[in-house]
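cron nightly-structures :: item 1 of 1
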Amino acid sequence: MSLPPFHLAFPVDDLAAVRAFWGGVLGCGWGAAAPSGSIFHFHGHQLGAHLAPAAVGGPAAEAANAGDGHKVPVPHFGLVLDMAQWRALADRLTAHGLAFAIAPHQRLRGEPGEQATMFFRDPAGNAVEIKAFADLGQLFATG
């Protein structure tokens, strides 16, 4: 499956902390960097962290929906990795002592759309979900 890369821009309030997180903890390569933001290589996609302290936080940052007994952060963005990449990233984040919003786990076992998922927040509070499917053909499965 060949997909075009996406671009996502999001607000941050501390570029040094965000650069350390996305570059160091997550291991994303860097693109352009300026006093007002940074571009990160996120598994072939382009993330733009823009310094905009007034846009960070607030009620929307704490919004959540119930799902599988968890409070799923809304809004959030993320990636679908293969299972080996997902496990490696979960291990990397755990080794870094990351506080997960929703710890790595399997959901929908034996059902359409069975997947592994984890949620965490970057230093600016942006919620990120990383998931994987044993069968990528189940990506858009319905129950």
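cron nightly-structures :: done
The mean pLDDT is 92.
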